[in-house]
Each structure stands twice: as structure tokens, then as C-alpha cells.
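Researcher: We're reviewing a set of sequences before deciding which ones to prioritize for further study. For each one, I'd like a predicted 3D structure that I can look through quickly. This is Succinylglutamate desuccinylase/aspartoacylase family protein. If possible, include the structure in C-alpha cell form so it fits the rest of the review sheet.
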Amino acid sequence: MDSEMTASTDLLRIHGYASLQPGPRLIVLGGVHGDETCGTAGIERVVSALDDGSLQLLRGQLTLVPVANPLARRLLRREGERNLNRLFRPTAPGAEPADYEARITDLLCPLLDRHEVLLDLHSFQSEGEAFAMIGPRDNQGPLEPFSRAFEEGQLALHLGTPRVVEGWLDIYAAGLAQRGQAADEAALAFGWGTNEYMRSRGGYGVTLECGQHQDPAAPDVARRAILSALRLLGMIEPDPAAAPPRAPSLLRLVSVVDRLHAEDQFVREWATFDPVARGEPIGVRADGSMLHAERDGFIVFPNAEALPGTEWFYFAVESDRDLTRPAPALSRAWSR
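Model: Here's the predicted structure for Succinylglutamate desuccinylase/aspartoacylase family protein, in C-alpha cell form for your review sheet.
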């Protein structure tokens, strides 16, 4: 496909709403991956409610992007030319965008720069319940320095999912080392998605995995999450009937296993968050060797269709993190 043609014919549709009263600046993305349609449907429902007046923005600014990757959506596949949720950084000044997704990133990055909170809506290939993904705890380390973990955790808590998962960039760096690749700045940059970019700009963000791609309930999971975020931030009227959020189960990603050969097979059909016991068989390699669970834990994002050399599944364990309690204050490593 001619990327110049697609670049000239695709449009990035952006809905912007600004109250006359100052307040938080929230951006919601859907369709970062083209085969994940629930976020788009949830956003469209919120757009309709705002446009017909049944939902009122009381303060702050709200930006809604129903389809963040138009090419991938037209093709109804995860990627257009590459994964938009990797290497999510603007093109260097004076350089030409390397591909279609780089052109999209060059439009989305300045848009994210004008906001302080991101909700990125996704879905996944295997069966499983909706869950939220958050970034690191407050830290001043070299990988992903951060000082808004409590706010980010509160957003995840109020989305109402039964589980929250942490540890993405740490495990991405570990995956590089596992493949014998240097975890240098250039390699780690490819692990950057929308949330990592937002955190690097002084904001914070949560990825909501709304369920399996075809789950008919997933669009409403997305819609409710947008409304929950708006209520938490005081941007719309509170719901007097809403119960306090229940503490979710919190998991930490600890490893990623790649599919090495097209003949690598799971021993059964796994769903995200299926529990496994230490030593339990998970898959069989092409050479007949059995892959066992390294410890008690949970399967995350199993992908029986993964291409050789890409992520086959992630492994998670229970986390000791408490989303309800702020950590000791850290000095900010940046200003906005």
C-alpha cells in the first residue's frame, strides 16, 4: 500500500470540548490498534451525549480521539505499517517521518502535550476480564522517573476493573536483555507508548484493556470508564448513587516469553489472568521441550497467533502496591 496515498487520504478525527471554568485537561484515545474497536464505540457514545446536551462538561478541557490510527482501522488489523503504541515520540526536528505511524505520532504528541491526564482504551485477543495498566511507582531512576503515581493509581482505582497491572516498561527492558539486545536509549524508546510519553511530559496516564476484542460488553466498559474519569476529576456532575470504588487485585508483570517458532504451542487455550502454579506446564516448544511456570502467578496476554520472535505471553505475580495511599513526596524531575 502506498503510504503517501494513505497519509493524504486518512483523517485524524478529534473532538474537543472546553468549559469556561478552568479545570483538568483530559484526553481519551481509542483505536490506537485498528482491530480494537471498543474504545472507539465508547468514545462515540460520550460524544453523542455531549453533543445532545445529556452530558455537561462543568470545568476543564476534554479531547476525544475515536480512531487514533486510521490506516490500521481501515485494514481492521492491529497495525498499519507498525505498532503505533511503540516508539511514541515525535520525529526529530529536520527529519522526515519514517512511516505512517510516525506521521500520526507527530500529530498526537502535541495534542497530548496540551493535556495532563490520558485514558487510552484498548482490548485484547484472548478471553479475559477488563483490567487497567499503570506505570511505575514514584522514583527518580533512569528508566522512567515519575512523581504522580498516586494520581495515576487513583484514576485506575476509579475505573472499576477487578484487576490493575503494573510493570510494563521494566518488563520491556527485561525482554530486550532476554533477546540479547542492548537496553540502550534507542531500544527502550521503542517500548514507549502513549502513557510513557504522557508521563515524560509531566502528566500521567492509564491504559484500560476493556476486554476481549469481540466482547459485546467492552464498548460500555469504555464508556463507563470515560465517565468515571470525568467524575473523578470533577469535570462532570458526580453520581450520587455511585458506591466507593472497590480495591482491585493488583498484579506486577515479572517476565515475558517470546514465541520462538511457528510450531511452539500452548498446552491449552489460556485466558488473560488464568492462574498457574509453579512448575505447571504452559506450552511446548517446537523441539518438544516443555515450558513450565517459573512460580505461582498469572498468565497475561497469551497470544496463540504470535509471530516467531514476538511476545507469546506475559507472566505476573501479586503486587504489594497500595493504590489508596500516597507514597512519600518526591521532588519533581521536570516542570510542565
